């Protein structure tokens, strides 16, 4: 088994594919709804209010410090639902595999995805497998979609945001993008960076359960913290002021960024949520965050302001203020 | 608390800015920095805002991508069109518009263009792809040139015959001579490029202080480095001194890095070089030495049509410090980092990109 | 615009990507729930009973007689929901694009998908776009997921199937697989075949509304009619008997199959549903099918039998009976 | 109602089967068909079930993929490993197990293997990939060989030098002579390969009727064709005639297709050939003529280790008609079309694949 490779027959709908599905996917994902040979999974949702999301993962390399494409695709989709105030319930898992991928590699990816889903308490209920000829894709691409139900967060929107609200983040930024970049092996330096890739639904659910002070949140993926904040500012009648010195950045990540001319605020994360919260609740929410290992380094990084409507301002470490824009141009391809 | 905090510290920066203000008084001071790293840092930390309006930064021709001419891009694209040829490039360069396409667009249209972080990586790639001719686009100043020299030396030692260099490498001192001797240039003081000086030392710039009578400081790249350098320049001006002082002592010696100089000399020789905005400057570039011409891609570059600059683009004026980026009519309208029209909007060290990305907290939306 | 090509910047999360999403995807899909810059779409479902499905489409070539990958991915996902007795409500649309794809090609694909979705009465509510470097995928891959609600078909399962039930199909088989094969241009003959790719939700909803006689159904995609019937037989305590002469196959499709040694029963369809219905309702259901252009050639192709439990038997045109197996081995790669 | 219905018609088939039954009576008749197309049709239409148990079909060495030896696969894989070389193959062949890998597995592991429906398509591909040596795996009988000859002739005319042929092409008459002369072979009558005869005519098979005294009928491939042929063979046997009769008159003339024979003769010459199951048979293959040796890939094939047959595989016995597929202990257990162990399980024309796919309505689950 260990030297076997994926061939086109594994995607051709015949016995090889049935065996792959039965022995690998169903075994690993093993949820009662998963009938891989049915056309769709049948669900009984807790609520008619749902959230629905999808993402394709093409990260290169497929294994990187802190994770792999299997872990990433689960965490990413769980987070996309969670930040909308929904409780992730079930996921789909569809992969496009390049002929020749060692079966052992696929197994490892599928196991990671399964573990991650179990850890996050979500079920993988439906899926698909396509195999394309060598050279027609790059190892493996995975697309996950997810359904969440919305017991919390009815009021989550930019509407209630007002001057004085605090802006929180649950820890260090830039780890994912830089760890993937370093894993490509073409930086001439050693980089100590591990992807922060993790499902945040537990953290977010705790916060929403313990405090009604959360007004809005997003995970800071492609485009980094800067993109999320820019989007937020454009969507409110207020401004945003960030204190750069308070934004947690690991020294190793900062060093790579300085060398390559990147701004850590532009680098992708896969386990970071930005929250706008009522000022009076900020301390309490930070306390809840810090109880969770995924929020151990949570801090307040700024606040919503009356002035400078629609823009994000950044107080630099030397005390000056400049505007923070979303990244423009191509930064790093295939980090997610 | 990380290592960068010591050079990015409001508690130190504020008194330093105060001291500059009191030294310079009402005196207008036009300071040119000629390294893109300085340009980026000045905007990123909004240093202008700490200083009196009388002190102004002018941005010189210090961004390696920006000073690379359109003709070089056109030649690279022509080379990339050849069969079994891969053009190896630093990342930013592939987004610089040529006369009709950028290298990124040429790649999207089917040419083989690979991005590397160093010449040595490109060399390794060539070793692993023996059936392809790999042409490395050598741009940059002495800082980069010495690493390219090392890769070339390695290619020669290992006789990697499918690795070649297309050079647009440039040297700073000659270019500064040309720029600062030009009567249109109006500069009171100079922040010298720290990284370049760490390689060639500060001595090659002495002529600026002594012949051209312009005070110089070799500066580091952190905000406190730059503020400190501005203070040192203000002192020189007030005291009517013209010297080359070194602020960036943790990296720069007057004589530079001799080993790095040697390998450059061994592999390269001075050639005339075309600079975007400055035109051709005698002996301001580095070419592959004749004895290594088997590794020189200059002969590969077929004829290309005469290069055309993007209509309306004023990168040349920006690079000479004659206009600020905002004064170009394309800026932030037709020309953005996402769809750059001119080279200065491409690199994070380009003045236009820096202004686009960092400027405008109070003044724009 | 027309000569422009997709570059990595279109997938990098910056302005190019925002423009692509705004000007192409949102314009084409234009559903109120589609906030391409939000992480998930928020939905209000008609029922808590839902069906959920996903499929990745890698068909090559991406344009073929009768359709393209954009039309196909919508029809396929709509059908996967419909055959489970669910009414398709909303879809996700996630694409992985190869750098260099002409923008005009992407536009055409997205327009096809949008039209198809509109025609089928489903909304595309969420999506994702990734761009990979030239040579890292083959033009474009699309993954669609879909949510359906289940107002009908509570009883749809193999449980109620019994001897005497009729097996119906809504028209000619093999058209999709053969049309895609022919579109590759490496058959030395001219083939007149058009993909049958079409969303069947309208047809199926009419039938379920007008008759309670439908017991089970599937769309006959990868593996063709033979795969669907084998699956059915394995899942019931009955047998299946098919009359090969009554299975509609176009002469052009048959001819290609004979030449290449394929069995039309093994060839993929993208607009064919196989139904097991109560015998007494068969005529009525066929009448309903035939009212719909997608069911104009609907026929009864066989019946459920008491004997030969778990297997599918086929009465050949010469009157003999043989077993019908699902296809084994790799038939045609990348037809879907 | 489509064109195929006229040859697939129960109203005609049933009386025909009755007539065979009454002609043959209780007489046991062992009929060998030597074309894979016939084997497939017999199973697909379950013709055995229309006939008395006394009439049995034996499957001969008529599936081109099946008779190709393991050594040929091994050589093809060795060639595919070479740099800048692409092996061009018919689809089924790539799934045949070699000594260690199939071509499909070699491709998954990185070798360049492309699938084509015709030699002419492979030639066009070679023209469009001038930097690669394209080695076409030429297998098949006269039916295929004449199309390969046409492609080779075109390659010569256009001087396409990167296109080569590795031949395992086979000719039917010599092989049948060897098989039917073998005392272990127990055959009463022969269904001759219709497609092969459409090329070389029925005359080259006359020796079977006259020298070996076995009745022959050249048959078409539709079920009514085959039943009609069985009826004709039964008549010959009952009437003690030994002739070569032609049932497939709509496609076959006694002299065959002269133009096709000429192009084969022009490009190929007879060579000794190894058949799976039959071993080496003198002059039973076609090789590229010496004057076109520039297009012959035989010289490219480096040494390979001695070929190993899959343990337990009895394809040889199946191809000689000595056992039925079901009698092999691997059949439907270790060996399935999805993971074939032997060649006869790969092609839709292979006896094992036909039995696997079509047999067993009453007898198995």
Summarize the amount of helix of chain A as a percent range: 25-40%
DSSP summary, beta strand count of chain A: 14
Element string of chain A (H = helix, E = strand):
HEEEEHEHEEEHHEHEHEHEEE
- Model regions low in confidence, pLDDT < 50 over at least 5 residues of chain A: none
Q: Within the largest sheet of chain B, what's the order of strands?
A: 2-1-8-9-10
Give the biggest sheet of chain B. Answer: 5 strands, parallel
The total count of helices of chain A amounts to: 8
What would you give as the CATH superfamily of the largest domain in chain A?
PurM-like C-terminal domain
Quaternary status: heterotetramer
User: Could you give the distance between the termini of chain B?
Assistant: 33 Å
- The percentage of residues in β strands of chain B lies in 15-25%
What's the architecture of the largest domain in chain A, going by CATH? Alpha-Beta Complex
Distance N to C terminus of chain A: 29 Å
| N-to-C order of helices and strands of chain B | HEHEHHEHEHEHEEHEHHEHEHEEHH
CATH topology of the largest domain in chain A: Phosphoribosyl-aminoimidazole Synthetase, Chain A, domain 2
Strand order of the largest sheet of chain A: 9-11-8-12-10-13-14
């Amino acid at each position: 088994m260990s030297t076997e490779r994926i061939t086109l027959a594994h995607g051709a709908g015949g016995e090889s594919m049935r065996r792959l599905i039965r022995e690998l996917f169903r075994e690993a994902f093993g949820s009662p709804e998963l009938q891989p040979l049915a056309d769709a999974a049948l669900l009984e949702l807790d609520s008619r209010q749902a959230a629905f999301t999808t993402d394709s993962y093409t990260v290169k390399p497929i294994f990187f410090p802190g994770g792999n494409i299997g872990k990433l695709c689960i965490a990413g989709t769980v987070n996309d639902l969670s930040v909308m105030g929904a409780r992730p319930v079930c996921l789909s898992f569809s992969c496009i595999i390049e002929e020749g991928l060692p079966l052992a590699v696929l197994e490892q990816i599928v196991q990671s995805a399964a573990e991650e889903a179990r850890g996050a308490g979500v079920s993988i209920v439906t899926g698909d497998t396509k195999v394309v000829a060598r050279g027609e894709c790059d190892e493996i691409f995975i697309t996950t979609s997810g359904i969440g139900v919305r017991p919390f967060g009815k009021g989550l929107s930019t509407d209630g945001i007002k001057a004085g609200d605090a802006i929180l983040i649950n820890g260090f930024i830039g780890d994912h993008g830089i760890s993937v970049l370093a894993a490509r092996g073409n930086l001439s330096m050693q980089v100590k960076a591990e992807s922060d890739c993790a499902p945040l639904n537990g953290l977010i659910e705790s916060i929403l359960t313990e405090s009604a002070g959360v007004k809005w949140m997003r995970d800071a993926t492609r485009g980094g913290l800067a993109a999320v904040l820019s989007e937020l500012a454009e969507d409110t009648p207020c401004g945003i002021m960030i204190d750069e010195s308070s934004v947690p950045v690991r020294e190793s990540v900062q060093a790579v960024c300085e060398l390559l001319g990147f701004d850590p605020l532009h680098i992708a994360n896969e386990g970071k949520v930005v929250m706008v919260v009522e000022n009076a609740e900020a301390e309490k929410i930070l306390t809840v965050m810090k109880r969770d290992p995924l929020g151990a380094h949570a801090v307040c990084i700024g606040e919503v302001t009356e002035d400078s409507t629609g823009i994000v301002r950044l107080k630099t470490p030397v005390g000056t203020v400049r505007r923070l824009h979303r990244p423009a141009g191509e930064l790093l391809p295939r980090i997610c | 608390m990380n290592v960068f905090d010591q050079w990015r510290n409001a508690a130190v920066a504020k008194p330093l800015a105060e001291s500059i203000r009191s030294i310079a008084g009402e005196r207008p001071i036009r300071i040119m920095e000629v390294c893109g790293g300085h340009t980026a840092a000045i905007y990123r930390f909004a240093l202008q805002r700490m200083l009196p309006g009388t002190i102004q930064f002018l941005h010189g021709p210090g961004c390696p991508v920006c000073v690379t001419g359109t003709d070089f891009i056109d030649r690279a694209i022509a080379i990339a069109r050849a069969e079994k040829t891969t053009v190896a490039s630093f990342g930013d360069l592939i987004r610089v518009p040529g006369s009709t396409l950028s290298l990124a667009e040429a790649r999207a249209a089917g040419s083989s263009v690979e991005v590397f972080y160093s010449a040595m990586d490109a060399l390794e790639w060539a070793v692993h792809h023996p059936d392809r001719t790999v042409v490395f686009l050598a741009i940059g100043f002495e800082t980069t040139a010495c690493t390219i020299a090392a890769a070339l030396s390695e290619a020669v030692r290992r006789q990697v015959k499918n690795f070649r260099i297309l050079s647009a490498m440039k040297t700073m001192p000659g270019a500064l001579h040309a720029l600062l001797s030009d009567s249109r240039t109006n500069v009171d003081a100079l922040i010298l490029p720290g990284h370049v000086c760490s390689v060639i030392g500060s001595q090659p710039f002495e002529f600026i202080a002594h012949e051209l009578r312009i005070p110089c400081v070799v500066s580091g790249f952190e905000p406190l480095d730059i503020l400190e350098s501005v203070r040192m320049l203000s002192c020189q001006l007030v005291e009517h001194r013209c010297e080359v002082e070194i602020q960036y002592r943790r990296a720069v010696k007057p004589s530079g890095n001799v080993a790095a100089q040697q390998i450059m000399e061994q592999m390269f020789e001075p050639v005339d070089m075309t600079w975007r905005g400055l035109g051709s400057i005698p002996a301001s570039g580095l070419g592959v030495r004749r004895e290594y011409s088997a590794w020189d891609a200059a002969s590969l570059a077929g004829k290309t049509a005469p290069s055309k600059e993007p209509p309306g683009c004023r990168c040349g004026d920006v690079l000479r410090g004659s206009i600020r980026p905002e004064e170009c009519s394309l800026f932030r309208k037709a020309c953005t980092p996402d769809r750059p029209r001119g080279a200065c909007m491409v690199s994070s060290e380009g003045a236009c990109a820096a202004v686009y990305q960092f400027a405008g907290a109070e003044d724009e939306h």
